[in-house]
């Protein structure tokens, strides 16, 4: 049987820690986190996101562009609108875990 602690240590040596830390840097932004939280519920367009989090359309579009650039969200066009959804189930799990952690430790 594999020792779980030793396995984790070996895996840590293999992964690019800078890329992992970059993910947390991206998630640290409140607007981006709110956008991702909304997208865990369902696919949305910029207008729907703007109405929910009360930010300007340009601010929302900028944050979505950054999230697309690092493959956290994807988009698809329906007519004249772009709809956004989470592209990485790991990110969705991180968001869920962080929310649950806060709820359980309050």
UniProtKB/TrEMBL annotation:
Q: Name one GO molecular function term.
A: DNA binding
The HTH arsR-type domain covers: 12-106
PANTHER family recorded for this chain?
TRANSCRIPTIONAL REGULATOR, ARSR FAMILY (PTHR33154), TRANSCRIPTIONAL REPRESSOR SDPR (PTHR33154:SF33)
Could you list this entry's UniProt keywords, alphabetically sorted: DNA-binding, Transcription, Transcription regulation
The transmembrane segments are: none
Which CDD domains is this protein grouped with? Answer: HTH_ARSR
Specify the protein name: ArsR family transcriptional regulator
Q: Which SUPFAM superfamilies match?
A: Winged helix' DNA-binding domain
